[in-house]
């Protein structure tokens, strides 16, 4: 009987843990101030565009559906006939404090063929053509300007043929279409591979586009002569020469410094924290908070592009390790017990970072992040 009670207690604890993690995941996507915005976009098969847009940080939800036609509440069968004038679309709900409308468009254009107005890869017909349904004049102007810049960049093999269409109605697709890539992983993987979408995108953006993404905005800025810092990992000999014994232990040997006995745990100055090895911008004082742990803690990174996470099994229970992308430095761990708006606690080692005061950011090449202190 004792064994049965023990088993029941364990199952209850496990279920509670799962529910807590689900709630934490929901909190991670919750808008930072309750404000959300909507983008309605078309890029061929909505299974694929839904999958790709949900990867963008700041996106709260993506729903597959239909827009652009006259028939109310059309079915997939009606739309796929090509006779209703609808287009397969996704409706993206996002937090404008975390991601801009242009960044949402950037993510879209880097995952579709915006030059084909007669279909999308293996899916043929005008109901699969690329389009941006603008909800207001501001969205229209942003989309027009951005698409002109993309055309001028010449990254795609043909001129853009993506339509700008005034938004009217959106009709949600059938339930079996929602999150198809999650519910039917094998079928989705087979379809996506056979469609030719990823082969095309690899040819345009390179086969490392997922591991080392470069946004269209970055490409445009660079083509216009805008200087951006590039980050890389120095040689092992240089790293060993430049770092202190503690910095090397933490960043290269995945060590942990002592709590309440490190440089930045109680630092209250305005500025940003960069990787001690590569110089990558990691965290801002605007997201730093007193966690009571004795290590510098943050609710989110400056730019998730510069941090990577992986599961760490060095203790009895799994943890999520945080490393810098280009420097590959061990930084610390992230936990789901932080405050709003993210519910996260990025618990970092001071020895893995260098602090750049706000007054020094411009001269040290981090002026682009001064906007963080305008609020």
UniProtKB/TrEMBL annotation:
Signal peptide positions on this chain: 1-24
Please give one Pfam family short name.
Answer: SelR
> Start and end of every MsrB domain?
236-358
Reaction(s) catalysed (UniProt annotation) = L-methionyl-[protein] + [thioredoxin]-disulfide + H2O = L-methionyl-(R)-S-oxide-[protein] + [thioredoxin]-dithiol; [thioredoxin]-disulfide + L-methionine + H2O = L-methionine (S)-S-oxide + [thioredoxin]-dithiol; L-methionyl-[protein] + [thioredoxin]-disulfide + H2O = L-methionyl-(S)-S-oxide-[protein] + [thioredoxin]-dithiol
Question: Which residues participate directly in catalysis?
Answer: 45
Keyword line: Multifunctional enzyme, Oxidoreductase, Signal
**Database matches in InterPro entries:** Met_Sox_Rdtase_MsrA_dom, Met_Sox_Rdtase_MsrA_sf, Met_Sox_Rdtase_MsrB_dom, Mss4-like_sf
Q: Name one GO molecular function term.
A: peptide-methionine (S)-S-oxide reductase activity
Q: What is its EC number?
A: 1.8.4.11
Keyword Signal carried by entry: yes
Q: Which SUPFAM superfamilies match?
A: Mss4-like, Peptide methionine sulfoxide reductase
EC top class, as a word: oxidoreductase
NCBIfam families with a match to the protein in the record: msrA, peptide-methionine (R)-S-oxide reductase MsrB
| Primary role | Has an important function as a repair enzyme for proteins that have been inactivated by oxidation. Catalyzes the reversible oxidation-reduction of methionine sulfoxide in proteins to methionine.
According to its UniProt record, which protein family does this protein belong to? Answer: Belongs to the MsrA Met sulfoxide reductase family.
Report the protein name in the record: Peptide methionine sulfoxide reductase MsrA
**Taxonomic source organism:** Vibrio astriarenae
């Amino acid at each position: 009987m004792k064994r049965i009670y023990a088993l029941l207690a364990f199952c209850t604890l496990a279920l509670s843990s799962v529910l807590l993690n689900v709630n934490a995941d929901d909190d991670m996507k919750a808008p930072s101030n309750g404000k959300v915005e909507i983008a309605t976009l078309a890029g061929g098969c909505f299974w694929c565009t839904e999958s790709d847009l949900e990867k963008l940080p700041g996106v709260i939800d993506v729903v597959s559906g239909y827009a652009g036609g006259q028939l109310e509440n059309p079915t997939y069968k009606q739309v796929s006939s090509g006779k209703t004038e609808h287009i397969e679309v996704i409706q993206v709900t996002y937090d404008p404090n975390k991601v801009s409308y242009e960044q949402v468009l950037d993510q879209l254009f880097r995952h579709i063929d915006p030059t084909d107005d007669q279909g999308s890869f293996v899916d043929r017909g005008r109901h699969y053509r690329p389009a941006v349904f603008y909800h207001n004049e501001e969205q229209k102007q942003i989309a027009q300007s951005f698409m002109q810049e993309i055309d001028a960049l010449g990254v795609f093999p043909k001129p853009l043929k993506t339509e700008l269409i005034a938004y009217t109605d959106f009709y949600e697709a059938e339930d079996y279409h929602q999150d198809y890539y999650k519910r039917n992983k094998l079928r989705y993987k087979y379809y996506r591979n056979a469609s030719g979408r990823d082969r095309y995108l690899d040819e345009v953006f390179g086969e490392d586009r997922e591991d080392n993404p470069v946004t269209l905005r970055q490409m445009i800025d660079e083509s216009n002569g805008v200087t951006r810092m590039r980050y890389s990992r120095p040689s092992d000999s240089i790293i060993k020469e430049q770092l202190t014994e503690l910095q090397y232990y933490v960043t290269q040997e995945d060590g942990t410094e002592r709590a309440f006995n490190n440089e930045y745990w109680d630092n209250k100055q305005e500025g940003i924290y960069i990787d001690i090895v590569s110089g990558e911008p990691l965290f801002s004082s605007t997201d730093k908070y007193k966690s009571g742990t004795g290590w510098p803690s943050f609710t989110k990174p400056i730019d998730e592009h510069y941090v990577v996470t992986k599961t760490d099994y060095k203790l009895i229970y799994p943890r999520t390790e945080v490393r810098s992308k280009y420097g590959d430095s061990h930084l610390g761990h992230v936990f789901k017990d932080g405050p709003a708006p993210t519910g996260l606690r990025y618990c970092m080692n001071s020895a893995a970072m260098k602090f750049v005061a706000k007054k020094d950011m411009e001269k040290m090449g981090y002026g682009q992040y001064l906007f963080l202190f305008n609020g």
